[in-house]
Write a structure and sequence with these properties.
By secondary structure, the protein is an alpha+beta fold. The protein has a domain at 2-83: Alpha-Beta Plaits. It is built from three helices and four strands. The protein has helices at residues 32-43, 74-81, 85-91; strands at 2-12, 17-25, 50-57, 63-71. The chain has a four-stranded antiparallel sheet. Strand 1 (2-12) and strand 2 (17-25) form a beta hairpin. The N and C termini lie far apart (114 Å).
Length: 129
C-alpha cells in the first residue's frame, strides 16, 4: 500500500484511545489485517491494541478511507468495546465428546390382577307400567 495520509486524529482521554481516520491508495481493498499493520508501523503500537471500525471506498476509486481506534492497551480495548464476534467464535472450543450411556428407565413392578373376584351385579327388575 502506498500514499498514507492522516485525515483526522483525535485523542479520547475518557476511553484511553486515539481515534484516527486516514486514507490509503491501493489497487485492492485493504483487509483489516493490512490496515492494522499500517497503523501499527506508523504509531509504534501492537496490533492487538488496534480496532478497525470501517474501510470505505468508492466504486472505481483506488482511494480508501479507514477509521480506527488505537488503545493504550489490549485490556482497555476489551473493556471499552468487548470481544468481537470473530474472537468469541475462535475462543469457543468444541465440547468434549460425551460418553453416551443408556438412559436408566425406572422399572415398575408388574400390575397384578385383583385377588377378589368382582361380583356381578344382579339385574334390576324393570318396572312396567
Amino acid at each position: 500500500m502506498e500514499n498514507f495520509n492522516i485525515i483526522e486524529e483525535r485523542e479520547n482521554v475518557l476511553f484511553k484511545r486515539k481515534e484516527i481516520k486516514f486514507s490509503v491508495d491501493s489497487e485492492v481493498t485493504p483487509s483489516h489485517a493490512d490496515a492494522r499493520k499500517i497503523i501499527s508501523e506508523k504509531f509504534s503500537t501492537p496490533e492487538e491494541n488496534i480496532r478497525i471500525k470501517t474501510i470505505l471506498g468508492k466504486f472505481g476509486s483506488k482511494n480508501f478511507t479507514i477509521s480506527t481506534n488505537v488503545y493504550t492497551s489490549e485490556q482497555d480495548k476489551l473493556n471499552t468495546e468487548g470481544p468481537s464476534k470473530k474472537d468469541v467464535v475462535a475462543q469457543k472450543e468444541e465440547p468434549a465428546p460425551v460418553e453416551e450411556t443408556p438412559a436408566e428407565v425406572p422399572v415398575e413392578a408388574p400390575v397384578e390382577a385383583p385377588t377378589e373376584q368382582l361380583k356381578e351385579e344382579e339385574p334390576k327388575e324393570e318396572i312396567k307400567e
